[in-house]
Amino acid sequence: MTEPIQLVDALERIEGEGLASIEAAESLEALEELRVRYLGRSGDLAGLLSRIGQAPPEDRRTIGQAANTAKRRLQEAHTFRQAALESAESAGVAQADLTMPGRRAWEGGVHPVTRVIDEICEIFRELGFSKVRGPEAETEWYNFQALNIPLEHPAADMWDTFYLADGVVLRSHTSPVQARIMETHEPPVRVVVPGLCYRRDPFDATHAPAFEQIEGLAVDEGIDFVEFRSTIEHFVHRFFGRETTARFRPAYFPFTEPSAEVDVSCHMCGGSGCSTCKGTGWIEIMGSGMVHPAVFEAVGYDPERYTGYAFGMGSARIAMLRYGIPDIRLFYEGDARFLAQFR
Amino acid sequence: MKVSVNWLRELAPGIDGSPEDLADHLSMTAVAVDEVHRIGAGIESVVVARVEETTAHPDADRLNLASITVGTDEPIGVVVGAPVRAGALYPHAPPGTTLPGGLKIGTRKIRGQTSHGMLCSERELGLGWDQSGILELPPDLVPGEPLAEALGFPDHVLELDLTPNRADLAGHLAVARELAPEGEAGLVLPSFGSAVDAWNPTWIDGERDVSAAGVRVVIEDPERCSRFLGIVIRGVRVCPSPAWLAARLWALGARPINNVVDATNYAMHELNHPLHAYDLATLRGPEVRVRAGRAGERLRTLDGEEHALAEVSSVIADADGAIGLAGVMGGEDTEVSSATTDVFLECAVFDPLRTRRTARQAGLSTDASYRFERGVDRTDVEKAITRCARLILATAGGRAEEQAVRVGPLPGERTVLELRPSRVRQVLGRSFDREELAGILAPIGFQPANGSGKADDPPLRLFVPGWRNDVTREIDLVEEVARRHGYNRFEGGAFAVRPSSVPDDPAWERAERVRRLFVARGYLEARSASFATARRAGPDAVELRNPLSAEEARLRTDLMASLLDRLEYNLARGRRDVRLFEIGTAFAATGDDEEPPALPLEELRAAFVVTGGREPEHWGAEAADVDLWDLKGLAEELAGDLLGAGVRPVLPDTAERVAEAGLGSVARWLDGEAFELERQGRVVGLAGRVKNSAVDAPRWVAPIWGGEFRLAAVRRDAEAAFASLSPYPRVGRDLAIIVSEKRTVSELEEVIRGACPPFLESVWLFDVYEGEEIPEGCRSLAWRFRFQAADRTLTDEEVDAAMNAVTFALEDKSDARIRTS
Questions:
Q1: B557 and B704, same structural domain?
Q2: Within an 8 Å CB–CB cutoff, is residue B675 touching chain A?
Q3: Which domain holds residue B480?
Q4: Which residues of B102-140 are buried (b: 16+ CB within 10 A; e: fewer)?
């Protein structure tokens, strides 16, 4: 009756030895030797199990269970140790040249003018401006007369305009949207209007026949020149930085009065004069002013009750300033080397 | 517009500060000054020289030798390259001079003859552009005098960027008024000599037709000319102007011509009234009329150009025919020359619009037309013509006829405007009291007028000066107050957040969704002008009336037209992998001749183009180009979340419908590899392969794919909806069938979905096999199914039943057979 006991003892011994040596195995080769020795077809465990027939039938079940348990434990230990050794090996001895480049996907990019438009609109959004749009092909009425610009007048020469038909133009500024919005909405009105404008300027480094502008319009009771100035100044500080100052100069736009040209201190030289600011220390960024009462009259607002301001700036031009882009044509050529710089 | 600082200081002696200070002051209170030039710099050592005699250069045909003196008897020899006259005065640059252009003057031998310095042209002195000859100096200069000093140089010229409203600043007196600390009160007109300063004519008035001093003046068409004043001066001696007068004109970049013509230009630059002098002897009649041009009439203007006149033109005519373009330019036949003895001097008010049309018709833009188009002061024509006549008398002698012609209605009452201090406060946000307002406005000519206002908030009543015809309503006065006070002194307010009654246009949000998607998929955003060539634009394109070039003569009917241009640009630079997208406007003609003409149709679209590698080339994988299934995958992605649409191949029977969807030229898409994005029966987009013939592409180009869709079809963020997540386990099954090649996957999937219970979560094709073991004309298709119920754990029986139903349906409806193993 000693046989089963001996078998169980032998099992426990094999399991104990096996687990200890597997856990101590220092290489995958050594581990493989141990696997063959303990778990292989002619290994210790198999050899022991082949003797199970010698045991009394009533004990075979117990011994079988013990043997399976031992086998499972040894297999688990082997798997665990193998994983540990494999990761140690791959960490210690590089199989691949890790300086080789990784697998990449194509990178997209947002156009620099879009980035500037978004940033400008976001600043005004915080001040309650909504973002609207208007048609690029316009009637002469909205492009000129509704904005207090008489046709056949030197003032109309400020915009060299493309015509599509009698009375139909490609808008030469985003300002027509002012009139369209006021005709369809009651004050208070606060909108920014990004969009393409068209002028008969052939492409050169600083001109494009189609270019982006952002128009702004604010109309309410009690808006005055002081509020207009501080709002634009706020924008300048947000967009160009606190250290940038704004100045307002007299200007003429038929649809604003008083009209103002807004300059910012040159970000390149800080105001001392350089090639970017043509030595003046200032860079012109927008035309603006208080909405002319004639515009209110044209859209049916009471000019005695409502006041407001409007402004327009060239988004492409501002993108040139922001990124130091010397030639406006780069925006419209679609050169992937250029666009890929703006991820 | 140029103004001379020396001249401004003469008109307003109180003007103080450097030229740069004055430029800055003008820029900040009135009109932008683009540049400040220094005139007469670098010519300090140039002296006035008299040519004593000239002889031909012995060894050069085109050169002459001149013997000159510079105030002493000692003759100096110079070699000259252009003719000079003995007895006349010329500028001499002695050896050691460096001229403004950088030319260094020395003693040089020219073809064997020594030249001690040189005689200079206008351009070499920096006084103008003429380099055709040596500048003959005014005869009143003294040989040996330093030239710059004798001419009153150095001077500075301010380059004004005049706005259309402030054309009055084209005259020096008006600029001086803006700059003088005392304004109007600080202005003085320089004297031309007490004898002539005292001369005044007696006006002979008439509405349309006046004869005086032997000349008849008729305004045939008062719409073209509202006032016409004329003075006759007899016995003048026409000769070069004195140095001071010539210097004024040189400073402004104008060329002195003779004392009579220069006097008219001087008066124009001083008082902003264009004037014209006629040689009276050449005026037939003598008579001068303002009338419409006549078809067939021709006129040679002072610049030597011949013009065919039209009815739109305003002309000046004598008894025989046209002698000038009214308000634009005089005629050659009647110009003042050295032979002239009697002069008829004109100062008129020509209508802005008629002058503009006259100038446009003739293709001319002159100092005179510039001023008349913007409007001159109707109230001080007398002053301008009298002052010009005095200057002619002072420089050319002669005797002015006492009687002078004055045709047209006299200026009426001066315009009075009311300015309410409360309105100033409302618009500007700062209070000014009545005294402050008057103190700001009176110096620039807005003098108080009498009259009483309402009791509370009495307005100021102000005369509008004649030169400010841009000021027509109260708001114009408010602007005057703001600019004279200084825009940058309106400080202190806080920026405000206010409400807006206007909602956002949803197009911007849609554009942003599209932009995010394409950028994430590795596309670069392009922007294009909306123009297209005839080839790209398609037959429905809107044409421009006045395009810049044939390439920009039409508006694009689709964005692909622009993107293919951008693609070609990159291909031409050797770039094989191109991935671009654009969001913009496409245009289409409305097609009918409406009155008034309708605006063209406009639609915001998004489009993309892609060619080249599917991924950037990598050492670990075989390079593969973007193919049909990449394109379709992108189309499905766009159609799915973004558009809520389906993707369908464009088939012969649907091609026409797609072509009529108005998404631009369909001719560029390759048949058999195009898809429509369709929603509720409407084509909202197209995607597919672009024909190589549609692109100017190099041989090595990979297949070009693209697509375009309507931005309005893009779903808004708010349209996304949440579906609850099932907590119960998901069960997977695979199914492979063998089926005829004629059965499309989409119809088979329709069968599958039709047979499945609602707890089918997803099903997708994961394997396609043709070849061995598969019968001819068939293929093996395998789908993976995922089942999941929202409310319970599915049992094996339920799922088996579902798969059996699918199997049965496929066998029954599609003649499919289950593939085992």
A1: yes
A2: no
A3: 419-489
A4: eeebeeeebeebebbbbbbbbbbbbbbeeeeebbbbbee
